[in-house]
Amino acid sequence: MAKQISFGTPVNDAERWAFSLLASELPENYILLTNVEIPTKSGQAMEVDALVIGEWGVYVVDVKGYIGRLDAGLHAWSLDGREVDNSLAKANYVARVLAGNVKHKIPVGVYAPWCQGMVFITGRKGEEIELEKQQGSLSIYTPKQIVAALTKEWGLTAPRSHQVTDEQKEMVLKTIGQVALVEQRNNKIQDFTKLKCLFIQSGLEVWQAEYNPGDWTAPWLLKILIPTQFTDQIQSQNHETQLRAEFKRLQALTGCSGVPYCAPLIQDGEQLVLPIRMPRGVPLNVLETESLTTYQLLEILRRSVSGLQQIHRRGFTVGGWTSNCVFVSDMGDVEFIDIKDTLNTGEDIQAYAQGFLALAEQTNQPRIYQWYQVAAKGGGGDLDALRCDLSALIDNGVCDTLPEKLEITVGAIVDHHYRLEQFIAATRHSQFWRARHIQGHYQCGISVYSKVESNWPTLSNLYRSLSKLHHPHVENVLAFGQLPQSEELFIARSWEYGVSLDELSDIQLGQPVMWFTQLLTGLQYMHQMDIYHGAICPKNIICNQEKAILVNFGIGLDIATSHYASRYADPKLWAAEGDAEKDLYGLVASFISTLAPVSLQGDGGQEGIIQALNSFDKQWFGEKTFDTCMKVLNFEFDVSQGTNYQEAFDVVECLV
């Protein structure tokens, strides 16, 4: 992209289009002066459409918007059979004048650069033009060859070719005069000074700029729209609408982290300018992540997700997720400079996860990079949960190496979130603790299980599903994972006040049927989701005055088998039964064994539970309920798709 200095306004669309093409296609070391005047000895100035100071020479370019077939000779030109002016002769004359002016100003010992005339025939924006030159060496070119002619040696008409030096370029600019003042005028927009053009296309430009109202300066970006440079009015209006919409979005997002500040729109009659404060740091695609520590990576991720959350909460999405539009500062601040609001929230989260996945994987924190991996594939993602996890890892400390094995004791911190406060109970292979969520300052329960490595894949899928479902009579899973350097896993769940079913000291009238009905609704919901408990027993049912809750899905066998329920929770007994039938058997047996005297239960096995059921008054129990319970205990109750548990047990009216 050449450095363009505009001395005047283009007089027609052909000039406007030609200048835009030359500015965008010529190399960076080229200088393009447009609508500039060359002084003569008499003091009269001759206007030049474009003056190109290039690598091999200085070119006086005359722009013609001819459309049709141009037959160009050394002396005469014709366009579609009618005579037109020979523009090359005029351009060559001005080039000779310029060369003479430069020779008078150049110091002794320095050669003047080669100056020559050239004609650029644009056609209709590069189309609808056919050029026939009577002599191939004539410096007349269409858009297909103009850039090559200005940048290659073969475009010179000089007998010998010499590259133009920086000193020669300076002498040409001094000959023109006041170039610096014109450039300063062109680059000034109110208190903003344009420094470097980052993008230019049609009537859109993006500039790196400096804000200098007084004794201090600040870096900014200027998005500039020049309506007269668009091909048609509709295109210009569409881009103006987009720029104004971007301004409104940035104004609506003021105060959100991750959103750069923007100044009011500037409209001076010729252009519309949106100033945006230059984001701090470097684009994500050039960030040297290899030199960052785990803590720095986590901080970048935390600030990125915080900014994204705030944008979503105000009803917008980022949309512009190319890596060069996301900036990261030395302090870990993340800013999005292309907020388009073109995606829905789910698509925005997926695009965000894809953009930051590499950083997440570099943290070596499974809980973090697994979130990004799932979200990047369109699996959705809870931004609140991710931000909480990132905060916990940062606040409680992580190591770049593998963490040490955790000792389960009072004060131990599990998963960087939960501090163990009180031991509640234990079996041979499990412990249950009351814990406190460190960031949230609320009570929760932590279960720790050992020797479950063989069941890990099944349990992982089960508890990932449970964490996304909610039923008031099924444990609310907060977190699930494996403890470091061990074969133990943990489950964090909401703290439920109450005691296990077999530890109830006082059971009031109506409570058993209320609890039983509630648990049936929970079981039916879970079974519809293909989630099964597998070890329902009194120890896995927590009751209080208002409700009953099922806990320990899939891993409660050690709790079940450590009590008398082992006789009906024995997997060997259930080998031929379905998972749903097993859960219903455990639920019915748990309530029968709790309500019936131990003396009536025999050995507590299947026969003993059936014997205990028969001790109840069938009319009091409810005839249909009694019959269904008996079928369940005899494994004669088959669960099929669409089976309604409440209707089958005749407890619909008992639901509280």
From TrEMBL:
It comes from Shewanella sediminis (strain HAW-EB3). This is Serine/threonine protein kinase. Residues 418-656 form the Protein kinase domain. Residues 10-121 form the NERD domain. Pfam families: NERD (PF08378). InterPro entries: Kinase-like_dom_sf, NERD, Prot_kinase_dom. One of its GO terms (molecular function) is protein kinase activity.
